[in-house]
Structure formats: C-alpha cells, structure tokens
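Its record is set out here:
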Amino acid sequence: MRCYAQGGQQGFTLIELISIILLIGVISVVATAKWPGNMKEEAAVKEFKRAIRYAQHQAMTRQYITTSNDAWGMAINGNAYSIKRQVSAENVPDFTNRNLLDDASITISDPGDLWFNGLGEPIDATGVPLTAPATGITYTIAGTKQLTVCLQTGYVVEGATCP
C-alpha cells in the first residue's frame, strides 16, 4: 500500500495497467485452449444413453408378460428414435421420432431396433434374449462416439465393448 502526502499521486501507473492487461490476455488464451470442443457430441451420447435406459425401464415396469408384443424398446428411424411397445403403436409422449438434441444432423447408426423383456434383457423380435453379437449391440452417435448395450444385463456402456 502506498502512502502519499496530501495531494500526492493517486491511481495506477502505466506499467501496472499494461501488466494486468497482459495477465488477463494470457489467462483468456489458456482458458480458450482448454475449452472442450466436442460438447455437442457428448451431450448427444448422454441423451441416447438415457433414452435406452428409459426404454429398458418401461419394459421392466409396464406389464411385460411373456410375448414380444409386450416388449418395450427403441425403434430407430434414420437419425430419429421412438420409445414404444414392439408391436403396438403405443408410444411414450415426447419420445416419438425424436432427433438427438432436436438436431436432425446428428447421426445414429442403425444396427437395428432395440427391445427389452421384463428383466431388462435385450431380446429379438420373437422375445428370445439375445446371445449374439458377443460384444453387445453398438450404436455410433455423430459418426465417432459409441454406445454399447450389453447382452444378458442390458447395461449401457460408452465405448464398443462390455465389461
């Protein structure tokens, strides 16, 4: 702290101002370089993962009896998905032909629709639990990010292989 006599200099010197401006510039350059660039893709992966888990939850809590007609899951249509019963047209509101992040340009690979039985296991069109492919069902989001639904458990993991 400076002490000046009455009527002395007050404020900052030019060197102090320039050094503060340079410090702010360096901090902003570092913050910009560290800022993540793929936030949109990450958000799309998280949304698709939640949608798969929601479809599985629907299958486990919505009166699955024994037939594939009762199965809940996801129907993939281009870059959109719907959560619904396998055979009937019963859709879940807000999850009918939904694009990821409401952006039709975000792609979803289409290895086929995904259905669950009352135990949360992925099943085929006849209601039989899936056993192949051994690595699980892998969806590619936005061309680069992968989500895999593990067989027997229905666990959803980011990446191409199940634990």
